[in-house]
Amino acid sequence: MMMQALYVAALIYLDAAPPGGTPAPAPKVASPTSLAPDDPAAIRCRSILVTGSLVRRERICRTNAEWRTSRDQQNRDADDLITRSRSGMNGN
Does the residue 12 lie in any domain? Predict the structure, then answer.
Protein backbone atom coordinates (compact mmCIF):
# COMPACT_ATOMS: atom_id res chain seq x y z
CA MET A 1 0.00 0.00 0.00
CA MET A 2 2.84 2.38 0.89
CA MET A 3 4.67 1.60 -2.35
CA GLN A 4 1.53 2.30 -4.37
CA ALA A 5 1.14 5.69 -2.69
CA LEU A 6 4.77 6.56 -3.46
CA TYR A 7 4.34 5.41 -7.05
CA VAL A 8 1.22 7.55 -7.52
CA ALA A 9 2.96 10.55 -5.93
CA ALA A 10 5.94 10.11 -8.28
CA LEU A 11 3.66 9.93 -11.31
CA ILE A 12 1.82 13.08 -10.26
CA TYR A 13 5.12 14.88 -9.73
CA LEU A 14 6.52 13.83 -13.09
CA ASP A 15 3.27 14.63 -14.86
CA ALA A 16 3.28 18.15 -13.39
CA ALA A 17 6.80 18.89 -14.70
CA PRO A 18 6.85 20.90 -17.92
CA PRO A 19 8.02 19.15 -21.10
CA GLY A 20 11.76 19.25 -21.58
CA GLY A 21 12.43 19.16 -17.86
CA THR A 22 13.11 22.89 -17.56
CA PRO A 23 10.84 24.94 -15.33
CA ALA A 24 8.96 27.87 -16.78
CA PRO A 25 10.49 31.25 -15.91
CA ALA A 26 8.84 33.07 -13.03
CA PRO A 27 7.03 36.32 -13.84
CA LYS A 28 9.10 39.45 -13.36
CA VAL A 29 8.42 41.15 -10.05
CA ALA A 30 10.36 44.07 -8.65
CA SER A 31 12.97 42.55 -6.40
CA PRO A 32 13.62 44.09 -2.98
CA THR A 33 17.14 45.01 -4.08
CA SER A 34 15.89 47.15 -6.98
CA LEU A 35 13.83 49.39 -4.69
CA ALA A 36 15.11 52.38 -2.74
CA PRO A 37 15.60 51.63 0.99
CA ASP A 38 12.92 54.17 1.96
CA ASP A 39 10.36 52.91 -0.60
CA PRO A 40 7.14 51.71 1.16
CA ALA A 41 7.22 48.47 -0.89
CA ALA A 42 10.84 47.64 0.00
CA ILE A 43 11.20 44.65 2.30
CA ARG A 44 13.18 45.09 5.49
CA CYS A 45 14.10 42.28 7.87
CA ARG A 46 14.75 42.73 11.57
CA SER A 47 16.15 40.31 14.10
CA ILE A 48 14.12 40.46 17.32
CA LEU A 49 15.06 38.80 20.61
CA VAL A 50 12.68 36.06 21.71
CA THR A 51 11.25 36.65 25.19
CA GLY A 52 12.60 34.13 27.69
CA SER A 53 15.73 33.30 25.72
CA LEU A 54 19.20 34.77 26.05
CA VAL A 55 20.39 33.99 22.52
CA ARG A 56 17.42 33.02 20.36
CA ARG A 57 16.31 35.59 17.82
CA GLU A 58 13.42 35.62 15.40
CA ARG A 59 13.83 37.14 11.96
CA ILE A 60 10.78 39.10 10.82
CA CYS A 61 10.55 40.49 7.29
CA ARG A 62 7.94 43.08 6.33
CA THR A 63 7.58 45.93 3.91
CA ASN A 64 8.42 49.43 5.10
CA ALA A 65 4.70 50.27 4.97
CA GLU A 66 3.89 47.30 7.25
CA TRP A 67 6.66 48.31 9.69
CA ARG A 68 5.29 51.88 9.74
CA THR A 69 1.73 50.64 10.37
CA SER A 70 2.94 48.42 13.21
CA ARG A 71 4.98 51.24 14.76
CA ASP A 72 2.06 53.68 14.54
CA GLN A 73 -0.29 51.16 16.20
CA GLN A 74 2.20 50.54 19.03
CA ASN A 75 2.55 54.30 19.56
CA ARG A 76 -1.24 54.70 19.71
CA ASP A 77 -1.45 51.84 22.24
CA ALA A 78 1.28 53.42 24.40
CA ASP A 79 -0.41 56.85 24.26
CA ASP A 80 -3.72 55.25 25.20
CA LEU A 81 -2.13 53.46 28.16
CA ILE A 82 -0.52 56.67 29.40
CA THR A 83 -3.76 58.63 29.00
CA ARG A 84 -5.77 56.02 30.90
CA SER A 85 -3.22 55.81 33.72
CA ARG A 86 -3.21 59.60 34.14
CA SER A 87 -6.98 59.75 34.34
CA GLY A 88 -7.13 56.93 36.91
CA MET A 89 -9.16 54.59 34.71
CA ASN A 90 -6.69 51.74 34.38
CA GLY A 91 -9.08 49.05 35.60
CA ASN A 92 -7.30 48.21 38.88
Answer: no
